[in-house]
Design brief:
single chain; alpha/beta; Spore Coat Polysaccharide Biosynthesis Protein SpsA, Chain A; seven-stranded mixed β-sheet; 17% strand
Length: 241
Amino acid sequence: MNGDRPEISICAPAYDEEACIEEVVRSWLAMLDGAGIAGEVVVADDGSRDGTRAILARLAAEDARVRVVGEAVNRGYGPALRSAIAAARGAFVATIDSDGQFDPADVPRLLAHQRRGGFDLVNGWRRKRDTPARVAADLGLRALVRALFGVRVHDPNCALKLMRARWVQEAVREAALEARGFPTPSEVVIRAQRDGLAIGELPVTHRERAGGQTKLRLARTALDAARFFVALRIRLGSASG
């Protein structure tokens, strides 16, 4: 820890998660306490229409490690996550979803793996998904990302990642990350590989959401993601040509 700077910032977007957000944020704080990590939690409320923002404000009032950013207008997963990342003060950023599907205990494991290998980014890969349809969608996305960009990590679209804050915050400032929704985690890995970062991998736990309902519409989301990656490939090719 450098002065008062946290070692790690846990960054997450949240949209209409009142059914689980308190339980999830408290689990992150408990993980930091249990692991002895000097950290903070930065949640970007993405224009929630329910009680999410009020719950987050109360948690922030109770614990100075919780910080709430975001806007009243829903902008999408990607912009919300980037808002959280931009506000992070830690030396490392851990990105995670706010629905409780990831085990907080994996965050210290990612950090330990980073220390052992000196990686710039450690990408989680989900050992088990919740439905066969999502398994198939992830396999298709992985194949597409591999074919278009040569990315060979097991699970590029896993939301649970640990990375050096300096790199990802610079990418946010320069608007190098542009995905709005589902492709966001994969775009992070694509950009990291393009920038020559050392990338490691670690299996992580994936489970049922802690509460509430998913906002994901699989067929439409998969089609939108494919369009995004093809367009990104064209833009990156033009930039390097």
